[in-house]
Each structure stands twice: as C-alpha cells, then as structure tokens.
Design brief:
- The chain contains 17 helices and twelve strands.
- With about 400 residues, it is of the alpha+beta class.
- It has four domains: about 60 residues, no CATH class; about 120 residues, PTS-regulatory domain, PRD (Orthogonal Bundle); about 80 residues; about 45 residues, DNA polymerase, domain 1.
- Helix 4 crosses helix 14, helix 5 runs antiparallel to helix 13 and helix 13 runs antiparallel to helix 14.
- The longest helix is centred in the N-terminal third of the chain and has 36 residues.
- The relative contact order is 0.10.
Amino acid sequence: MAKKKEAKPKKAKKEAKGKKAAPKKKPTAKKEREIEEVKPEAWEKIPLPKSILDAIAVIADREGLSKQDTDDFIDVIKQRFEDIRVEPGEAVGIVAAQSLGEPGTQLTLRTKHYAGAAEVSVGSGIQRVEEIVDGRSKAKYPTMTIFLDEKLREDYSKAETFAKSLIDVRMSDVVETREDFARGKVVVEVNEQTAKEKGIEVKDLLSAIKTAIKESKGAQRKNSVEFVFPKKEPLLKVRKSLLKMLNLKVQGVKGIEKALVSEEHGEFVIKTSGSNLKAVLKLDKIDPSRTITNDIIETSKTLGIESGRLMIVNELRKTLVNNGIDVDLRHLMLLADLMTYTGAVKGIVRTGITREKASPFARAAFEETVKHLLDASFKGEIEQLQGVVENIIVGQPIKVGTGIVGLVMKK
C-alpha cells in the first residue's frame, strides 16, 4: 500500500510537470506564428509609405509583437502620419521660400569664421547660404573633417604626424634657387628648417631634385645641389625644367593647404583647409564612414547624388543654426530635393533649375525675360498654364489652396 501511495504522487508530479511544460511551448509557437503572419504584404491596403511599413515590420519582428499589438501600433503611426501630412493644395514651395527668405534677411554678413581650431576658416552667413543655393562648382572655403582610426584617434602625437603628412607640399615650399645663367649654373638649396617642420628628410629631397632635373648632372653638397648646364643649352629649356622641378609634389594630398588636430567628443580629429575627399578616402589611417567635406559638388561626385542632397540640408541647417535662425527641416529638404532631383546638383540660378522648366512664362519670370520669350516663340512652344507663376502673369486664379477645386452647380 505504501508503495502504491508513493507511486501516485510521482505520477501526479510527472503529470503536473507535463502540464506546466506544455503551456510554455504553446505560446512560443503561437507567438512565432503570429509574428510570421505580420508581413508588409498584409499591410498593402494601409495608406502608409512602403519605407514606414518596412520599418514597422522590422520593429514588430524585433519586439515580438502579437497581431493585435501590431495593429494597434499601425493605428498610432497612421494617426501621427495623418497629423503631419501636408493639406491637399498647400502651397509648399511658396511657404518654404518665405520660411527661408524672411529669416535669411537677418543673416550676418560675416564672410568666414574659424572652426574650432585657429586658422581653418569656413564660410558662414549670407555668403555661405548663397554658395549652397547657387550650387557653385567650387566652395570658397573648402574644409574637411577627417576622423581617424582607433589607433590614432586617442594619440595626439601620432594624429599630428599624420596631419602633417596630409599637407600638400611642393618643392617650391622647401627649396630656394640661385640662378647664374651667365655661367650656366643653378644652385638648388634645401631650407632645412622648413623641411623639418613639414616632416621631410633632406636626403630624400636632394635625391628628388637630382632626379627631376635630367638635363644636367648635379654636384651634391651638404644641403644643396649645383647644376652646370652646357653653354649651348637654350635658357628657355633650362627655365622650363627648373619650374617643373619646383612644382613637383613632395608629399601630402593635392588641395590640402593646412591640417590641424583638434579634440571633439573625446577623440582627436583633423580639420583641414582645402579639400580632396576622393584621395583622402583611399588613405589607410582614417575612418572613411565619418570623414566629410563641406564641398557639396565634390561630395555628390564622390559619394553620389543622395549624399549631395543630404549635404545641402546639413550645411544650410548648420549655417542657419550658427546665426540663431530656426527653420523647419522640411523646408530645407524641399529645397534640396528641387536642386538634386535630376541626378546632378543644380543651383537656383538662371543656368540651373530655371532653365529646365517646361513653361516659357515660368522661365521668363526669373531672369532674361525677352530671351526666353523669343526662344519660345522661335520654337513654337505652347503655354499650358499649369503652374503658379504662369497663371499670375495672365491674371487667372492659381491652382493652389481653394483654387485647386473645380465646382459644378446644378440648375
């Protein structure tokens, strides 16, 4: 009897264990099944952009949301999306232009300011905004912020050595020439102090000088090379070879004039005056994912038009915030979209986006009115009166706001 009594509790315990274990497995399977069902395909009828639906799918999968929770989450997102949507017929272009133009009149006329480290000037104020919006091919004050790899970003001396190696040094920066054409003699002397400051070995310079001037054999001294040219050698040829030697690159990256190390957020970064993103991104000791330039055209050519668009937004925002002006980001994004939607950065100038407008009146309304109207009449263009400017010119209601609605009355 005792044995039987002992056996029952064991069985009961096993059953109890089985009962406890079973529910643990079931919800997991159910949960997995529910998460599998929550896919973007099921949400195609929901009026949300695909990028937002994809983001919801990722979050639902990561957080393990049930079908009901996901639906509730979608409802919240839908509500927020509806709240921030532009009303049909809203004149977004005019609002963006006014939002930028009105506070833009308060911009200071400072032409440049110094970014963190001394002597690395970057454009600011109204001139910088003009430069960005006009889509100029070359920035007036191109600068780069070069982020370093793990070894260099915490060691100041290594970062400084690397910064020196980036500066574009030409032979004319570190040597002096003494010419005596009557005797056919030229002495090229290395400025040891300058070479030391730039971190260049005198030996390397002397051998580079000898290699560069092939027309004559050079006699090497301590820190100079003396060349004696044949008397029959034309002086023009001697001068050409000398100038070629003086323009020879000794070290560094083309276009970088200055490089200074400064500390940002607990790490050392290099700020440069002058820019060459394509060449710098090929270097080993940098962090290519964070290294940037303020030259928008160079960025779009190196990294693509999307990065150029992002640079326009960031640079405009930075310039406005530095001057204490707060403009809604969406106005800047609209401007950036307008400048880059063709696949190249086009400025808001007569040679940029205005030239590509389909409407002759819209082209004529900006600049060179007579020229645009003559061109349109020669080509026999027809004005469709679709835009805002065209309708204002002919005195019709514009298709914006209430003007977008067409009402029909029954008799």
